[in-house]
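User: Can you model how DGJ sits in this protein?
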Amino acid sequence: MKLSYTIALFFSLITTAVFSQYNAFVPGKGWKDTDGMPINAHGGGIVFMHGVYYWYGEFKTAGRGGNTALKGVSCYSSKDLYNWNNEGIVLKVEENPNSEITKGCVIERPKVVYNKKTGKYVMWFHLELKGQGYDAARAAVAISDNPKGPFQFIKSFRPNKGVWPIGFKDEFKITSSAESNLTPWSPEWITAVKNGMFVRRDYDKGQMSRDMTLYVDEDQKAYLIHSAEENLTLHISELTDDYTDFSEKWNRIEPAGHNEAPAIFKKDGIYYMITSGCTGWDPNAARSFKSKSIWGPWEVLGNPCVGKDASLTFYSQSTFILPIQGKKEQFIFMADRWKPDNPIDGTYVWLPIKFNKEKPVLEWFDKWNLEVFNQIN
Ligand code: DGJ
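Assistant: Here's the modeled complex, given as structure tokens:
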């Protein structure tokens, strides 16, 4: 008994010594977990609880079909942000073909927040029903008592059915028969989009929810920020106090601005958002915005990236902005380098956020660690 305990301890120490190897971030390169396997948590987000960071993401598989959900949402935990333990699949797809999260559906950009009132971990994600391409455009919610899961799927739906956004003018609530005949991207069409053509179209069945993120403010109010209106306009939708539904208070951000991949943070009382344009899995130039109120108006700040490959966000697309615990000025920009032909090969680009007055700046680092923050801000 004693001998086997000693052997087990020896192997566990060896494993820890071999795989607790990272003391820096190496953007865009392979990143292994503490078992020596590539981290598989794409389009992810992070929650911090009791000294531990939990990273949730899309579990991708090999081959062209690897962007559909064949397993579910994965979770990794870390105390130092460099070395991650695999906690397994915390939201599993279901075998039942009638389930909304049946194997082969699309689950993208899962994000988890903790609800202080209910003591539950609440996960939201973008769900596409199996075999329906990207038409369903649903927001989906699951809950758990434990950050390591299992998460229990609750429901998926289109947000804000039958509710107009804050301050939506009465004159825009009426559909004109002519607008459906406008030529896409013509000036008249863009004006119609800005004036809510797709909000009106989706009023009865609920607004679209594709790329998304979650944000909990200091007053514990939570928000889903989601690409809606055929990805032309972001919506910000307040959640109910238990974070499992919408309060029906919502607003539009950048109408006709064509933003995906929203990531949001707050510094010195100002909200910042970084997004991408819409070019499928291909990289494009990131955008940044700021606002004094989460409801806007959001001021356009331009591409936060500087230097070589800034126009392609260093070949990546935003997914989340992580505030480092206990550090007022330290935020990590998290992004994905997608590999649509073999999604499992996608890598992660994490970069420190610098500031130029009230503008976030992203600069490439081949390799960096948290000490960078002592020099950059
Ligand atoms: C870009 C989005 O940001 C991704 O999450 C994914 O939906 C792809 N488009 C699909 O083409």
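A couple of observations from the model: Residues 287 and 302 are 5 Å apart (CA to CA). The longest helix spans residues 2-19.
User: Helpful, thanks.
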